[in-house]
Amino acid sequence: MDSLKPVSKVHFFLLAVAFTMVSCIERQEFPLEPVIEFKNFNITQVNGTETGGIELSFTDGDGDIGLEAADTLFPFQQSGDYYYNFLMNIYKKQGNDTLLLPYNLRIPPINPDDYEQNLKGEMYIEIQLDIVRTILPDNKFQFEAFIYDRQLHKSNIIVSPVILL
Counting beta carbons within 10 angstroms of the beta carbon of residue 124, is it exposed (0 to 12), middle (13 to 18) or buried (19 or more)? Predict the structure, then answer.
């Protein structure tokens, strides 16, 4: 029995140290409005289809980014302003004119089990580059984008650098 006492003390000490370390970690707080940041754009080719990937980092203080496929009632109805929660305009300036291609998507729920939790992470948005090339035939473009969360909080608007295809 005496050989168990030192092990128990070691376990208790490790638990106390672990508890102290966890209690010292500060919980990050973020604004209720989502905040997004452009990280990167890359091009991949699968089965002859060229896809552009937009990498974004994000935070959201109330953790409610994303819509389910079944979210189609007001204010998320298909004809409404909030049907899409990722809104992007792809554009190219030509002299005094701007060619514009709206490219809107629905981001699925990022954390469907806990809408009260702060969120911080990265997301990857794919766009079909053949569509972009058809509308904007030059090999360079820019985009601006923002997102809405379920409470209709609008994020900041990001503007990409000029992207060369």
Answer: exposed
The domain made up of 35-164 has a fold known as: Immunoglobulin-like (2.60.40)
CA-wise closest residue to 126 among 103, 159, 101: 103
Residue boundaries of the structural domains of the chain: 35-164
From CA 120, how far away is CA 117, in angstroms rounded? 10
Distance CA 156, CA 161 (A): 16
Tokens of 38: 């452009």
Q: How far from chain centre, in Å, is Cα 93?
A: 27
**Chain mean position to CA 161:** 18
pTM of the model: 0.80
Query: Based on the number of CB atoms within 10 Å of its own CB, is 23 exposed (0-12), middle (13-18) or buried (19 or more)?
Result: exposed
∠ CA 85-87-89, nearest 5°, is 175
86-94/119-128 β-pairing: unpaired
Residue range 65-114, pLDDT digits in tens:
999 999 999 999 999 999 999 999 998 877 788 888 899 999 999 887 76
User: How far is Cα 155 from Cα 55, in angstroms, rounded to an integer?
Assistant: 16
- In angstroms, the CA 13 to CA 7 distance is 10
